[in-house]
Design a protein that fits this description.
By secondary structure, the protein is an all-alpha fold. The chain is built from 6 helices and no strands.
Length: 136
């Protein structure tokens, strides 16, 4: 019984010392209100990071990365370590990239070609579309 009593004192002393040690080591916690702009900015940053991840998952981008000698998983890992500012810059560059061509430019070019064809056919005398062109 005497032995168990001394063992209990030792265990109790160790527990008391450990409680004192852990209560000193823990840093105090401070609470503050988080405003709506901060939460919205976090959501925008998460969406931007997801946009870059989806861009890297595209097949054409993957082929281009492989042609440049960059592994797709390595590129994904680099995106995960980028800062929010770097992600925002990258998303802006992705948004400025042409997606499948410029439809307005194509329509304007087509209109110019048709206009030139009508002028040439008017000059030759095949058509009579424009009255200001003198025939030969």
């Amino acid at each position: 019984m005497r032995r168990s009593r001394s063992l209990q004192r030792i265990v109790a002393s160790l527990v008391a010392v450990s409680f004192c040690f852990f209560s000193v080591v823990v840093a105090p916690v401070k609470a503050a209100m988080v405003g709506t702009p901060e939460i919205l900015q976090l959501q925008v940053d998460d969406q931007a990071r997801d946009k870059v991840r989806l861009f890297l998952q595209r097949q054409d981008v993957g082929h281009y990365l492989e042609a440049m000698g960059v592994d797709r998983q390595e590129a994904q890992a680099r995106v995960d370590t980028m800062t929010d500012e770097e992600i925002r810059m990258l998303v802006n560059k992705i948004d400025q990239m042409p997606a499948g061509g410029d439809a307005l430019g194509f329509i304007l070019a087509l209109a110019v070609v048709v206009f030139v064809v009508f002028i040439v056919t008017d000059i030759i005398g095949v058509t009579d579309v424009f009255t200001f062109i003198k025939k030969r």
